[in-house]
Amino acid sequence: MTYSILILGGTTEAKALAGRLATDPEYQILVSLAGRTKAPAEQPVPVRIGGFGGAVGLDAFIREKGVDLLIDATHPFAAQISRNAAEAAASSGVEILALRRPAWLRQDGDRWQEVGSIEAAVAALDIAPRKVFLTLGRQELLPFEVRKQHRYLVRSVDPVDPPLDLPDVTYITARGPFSEGDEIRLLEEHGIDLIVSKNSGGRASVAKISAARRLGIDVILIERPELPDVPSSTSVDVLVDRVRHWTLSRRKRGE
Fold first, then answer.
1. CB of 205 closer than 8 Å to CB of 76
2. DSSP string, 64-102
3. Predicted structure pTM score
């Protein structure tokens, strides 16, 4: 017997999870990506790209494809997708598990100002000109156009098109993970004195935070949104164990 598992992905942890589960012939794995990046990272299993049409559409997809287990391994800030996943799992009767990486915690030397939204991050920018490193999604950059007095460095996976309406902005197209040493060199090369980042957590993008700590650079850190209360794990290893336990329970029930 094989079990169909749908992984809502787009994170490094989702890719690792899919690779781990795909080694077991009991599982038929499908990873779903939102399609926000033009060239998504290669996955070790079959992939579908695009939205479902909200919770109702995801429910219909689960029923049509005979999904046995839904895993929400999306980005911590993909709150709407997580809400849709929880709602679709409840309405379809399919079990759901979530992979939620721990948030970054303040350490000695961190110069954080924590805010609750992109808009609050824009409002928190000082009036005096700063050299600002924006490490946000392309869709989240437009609000910063009102702060034209700053010099910006923008890094994104895909090019920012059209460019921002800012007088002084440099673009870098790159995909992480990045090392602390590379981040230190980047920050020093561009004379950065302020970073704006979401508290994404995990290891893939933490280097900029540790580099800021080493260099004494200010960070405006956007706090995570509230996510649905579903069974979750904080690491790939623990979630793989939960999937194995779920499989054993299904076998014992003859399902």
1. no
2. HHT-SEEEE---TT-HHHHHHHHHHHHHHT-EEEEE-PP
3. 0.91
Report CA 212 to chain centroid distance, whole Å: 21
Name the residue among 211, 193, 189 with its Cα closest to residue 131: 193
Cβ neighbors of 161 (< 8 A, separation 6 or more) are: none
Residue 177 pLDDT: 85
- Provide Rg for the chain, Cα atoms: 20
What is the C-alpha to C-alpha distance for residues 203 and 30, in angstroms, rounded to an integer? 24
Q: Which amino acid is at 95?
A: E
- Tell me how crowded residue 226 is: count the other CB atoms within 10 A of its CB: 9
Beta bridge partners of 47: 31
pLDDT in tens, 184-225: 999 999 999 999 999 999 888 899 999 999 999 999 999 999
Q: What is the DSSP string of 40-57?
A: PPP-SS-EEES--SHHHH
- H/E stretch holding 156 reads strand 151-156
What is the spatial distance between Cα 160 and Cα 6, in angstroms, rounded to a whole number?
31
Q: Which two tokens stand for residue 201?
A: 């957590």
Q: In which residue ranges of the chain is pLDDT below 70?
A: 37-39
Helix residue spans in the chain (DSSP H): 12-22, 54-65, 79-92, 118-124, 180-189, 207-215, 236-252
Task: Say what the pLDDT of residue 39 is.
Answer: 61
